[in-house]
Design goal:
single chain, alpha+beta, DNA-binding, eight-stranded antiparallel sheet, globular, 227 residues
DNA sequence: CGTCGGATAATCT
DNA sequence: GATTATCCGACGA
């Protein structure tokens, strides 16, 4: 489990999906080419958060795993929000509507209905609230998880093993070995065949797998000059 | 359901 | 200047 406590409240996530990165010997790792300013935390002692910013808009969080000098870390990819779903949902709604026309979200005030755990298939009432899907997607993916927890660059280097730290990793219920699956890591270019993505079978909060897609950006010279 | 392209800025060469 | 450990909305079936 990973949890973060702020003035807005506590949000706790039970992890269902992670990815391992092996540092300088792993072509998929940010540490592959040696220490830099960005990956410095990974080369430090274990038990700290390595937070990076990517695609110009997203944060992702790793937990550093090996002792100083070895840049091994685990990317926290997805999980189930088990506490503070209302806070997490408000953050997600806020952030995703940043660019759209609708600035105010009607769901912000009535988000107390998070009781559903039984087999009720109710939900998709009309267009207003589709609570089930929203709840499932709260932390489904590394950037969404950071959004739900409000993790940003300020938390890079945070001590996640200190119980007094606002951001902390905690041991939860043990997952039986046989329900853990593994496969290639998501969206990475180098060492894509290495099966170091791990997830809990059958969990709806596990993010969909996506292979790396090389993205050739629009031509620098042509884009800005309409004619 | 599925695939496709745009957004957007820190980081490294 | 190119690339990116991503997400979202649009569009087609």
């Amino acid at each position: 489990m990973i949890e973060y406590e702020t003035a807005e409240g506590l949000v706790a996530v039970r992890l269902t999906e992670v990815e391992a990165y092996a540092g300088t010997v792993d072509a998929a790792s940010h540490a592959y080419r040696g220490p830099t300013r960005r990956n410095a935390v990974m080369f430090g002692p274990p038990g700290y958060a390595y937070v990076y910013f990517t695609y110009g808009m997203h944060f992702c969080v790793n937990l550093v795993c090996a002792s100083s000098g070895t840049a091994a870390a685990v990317l926290v990819r997805a999980g189930q929000v088990i506490e503070g779903a209302d806070v997490a949902g408000a953050r997600r709604a806020r952030d995703s509507t940043a660019g759209t026309s609708t600035a105010r979200t009607s769901t912000a005030r009535t988000s107390t209905a998070r009781d559903s755990t039984a087999g009720s298939s109710a939900a998709r009432t009309s267009a207003a609230r589709n609570g089930t899907a929203v709840e499932r997607d709260l932390a489904r993916g590394p950037a969404r998880l950071c959004q739900a927890l409000a993790i940003d660059a300020a938390l890079n280097g945070a001590d996640v093993c200190d119980p007094a730290s606002p951001l902390r990793a905690r041991t939860g219920e043990r997952v039986p070995r046989r329900v853990i699956r593994s496969g290639p890591r998501t969206g990475v270019r180098g060492a894509a065949e290495v099966p170091w993505r791990f997830w809990v079978a059958g969990e709806p909060t596990v993010s969909p797998y996506r292979a790396h897609v090389p993205r050739a950006r629009a031509r620098p010279g042509t884009a800005s000059t309409p004619r």
